[in-house]
Each structure stands twice: as C-alpha cells, then as structure tokens.
C-alpha cells in the first residue's frame, strides 16, 4: 500500500538518488535547477510516496518570484518540481496522487500561483496552462517554452515580460499567514 507523507530529513539521500535516476547526471545544468541553488525545498510541501520502507516517488516545491521587467515589480509563486517516480512504478498514478495532494496542501495554505517547467500534455489535467504568450525567462535568460502556470483567474496576471528568480520578496513574507494568496505588486 502506498502512503503519502512529507519528506523527512533522513529521506534526502534516497530522494536525490531517485532524482538522479529520473533526470540523469545533467539535471543540475537545467535552468530550473538554478532556482534551487541556496533555495531549499519548502519542507511542508515536499512529499514522498512510500511503499513499505521504499520511497517510490517524490515531489518538491521552491519559493520563487516572477519579476515584471516592464514595471519593476515582483509576484511571488512556488516552483513545482522535480516530480519523480521510480521506473518500475511509473504509470500507476503515483505522480498524479502526489500532485493532487500537494497542490491541495499548497492551496489550503494560501499558495495559489504555481509554476513549473514540464509537458503540458501531463500537467494540463491539474489545471496548468502555458505561460506563453507572456515572455518569461528562467535563469540564464533562457526562454521557458515549457513554462506552465496554475493560478485562479481572480489573481493578477503574470507580467507580459518577466524573469523568474529564487526566493520570496519581503512584502510577501510580512503578509504571511493571512492574505498572502493574492498579494501582487501590480
């Protein structure tokens, strides 16, 4: 039976091995990984799937900001990923359950703007849509053609031209825990 719970500090080495197997040795060269340097996963939203003593899946989230390059403002969000499932347990719905549970936990805590770099065909069923036609880049100035966002229509739109940086602005931290979901510098 699969049990879903928060990643524990002692899970870290196993999760890192799972991520190495899922994404290969070049995973740290990806633009999304640049956002994770000195920006640890948000512990309360980093989950694993356990089958007995074996970790068979993992998902993590990091704090990010979308900088509006035209207005000079910042919008806080969370970055989903990486999501990884062990090879012999893929296509069993474990990733979908990890996402459903963690997105619900994020929303319950007031985090409604979630971005990721991934395949629309998979993530669309969780409410993600392309960031395009907005031109928002990841570290290194790379155009994130695979950048997706999930947010309520009532939230302020992402900027037309922007870039993603690690961490949250002080303004957002000061508003926690109340009213943080809809803070926008716009």
Automatic annotation (TrEMBL):
A GO MF term: acyltransferase activity
Database matches in SUPFAM superfamilies: Acyl-CoA N-acyltransferases (Nat)
EC number: 2.3.-.-
Keywords assigned by UniProt, alphabetized: Acyltransferase, Transferase
Pfam families associated with the record: Acetyltransf_7 (PF13508)
The UniProt record lists the keyword Acyltransferase: yes
InterPro entries: Acyl_CoA_acyltransferase, GNAT_dom
CDD domains in alphabetical order: NAT_SF
Domain N-acetyltransferase: 2-145
Protein name from the UniProt record: GNAT family N-acetyltransferase
